[in-house]
């Protein structure tokens, strides 16, 4: 890990033994899932109740999003943005979701949350609109702690290529793995400028 940036809401610093909502962000291959699971084990070792979750979720809308990202389904970018917002709202309000876990005294560690939409969907549409469609999730469950895993893009690419036999297509910092056999990577536009542009915590 090149760096971990931590954003903490003031009230979360008072007593971490209480249930907290922790969101972990970073581009694909940054190790955010690994770090999130390590954090889960650490909290459990301290006697805290905690669960690991992720977005897109494994709920119905989340599964549809994964099919679109994998290329087996097609959708307009605006539709995808709305699906992410809907899946996120279910993630928050579902009977096994964020709010219910917090109510039951269980901390939630989420691999991705609304800042991912701010970063990725703003490439295709106005950021203000992306923020507007995610406002319900944000108002209902704002993370107490935000972790951003900052890793050089070339390192992330190497990890992805080692772990997946996919061709990697890059567009302005967004990593999309497709299961075809294309060999042409000439449209690789992923660079440090693109990464910084995508992950502005606004």
Would you kindly provide a written description of the structure presented here, covering whatever features stand out?
This protein has 202 residues and is an alpha/beta fold. 43% of the residues lie in helices and 18% in strands. The protein is built from nine helices and seven strands. The chain has a five-stranded mixed β-sheet with strand order 1-5-2-4-3. A two-stranded antiparallel sheet has the order 6-7. It is globular and about 45 Å long.
Strand content: 15-25%
Category from helices, strands and their pairing = alpha/beta
Measure the end-to-end span. 23 Å
Largest sheet: 5 strands, mixed
Oligomer: single chain
Which term fits the overall shape? globular
Number of separate helices: 9
* Largest sheet: spatial strand order: 1-5-2-4-3
What percentage of residues falls in helices of 4 or more residues? 40-55%
- Number of DSSP strands? 7
Mean pLDDT: 77
- Uncertain spans: 165-202
Helix and strand run? EEHEHHHEHHHEHEEH
Q: What features would you highlight for this structure?
A:
alpha/beta, 202 residues, disordered C terminus, single chain, 7 strands
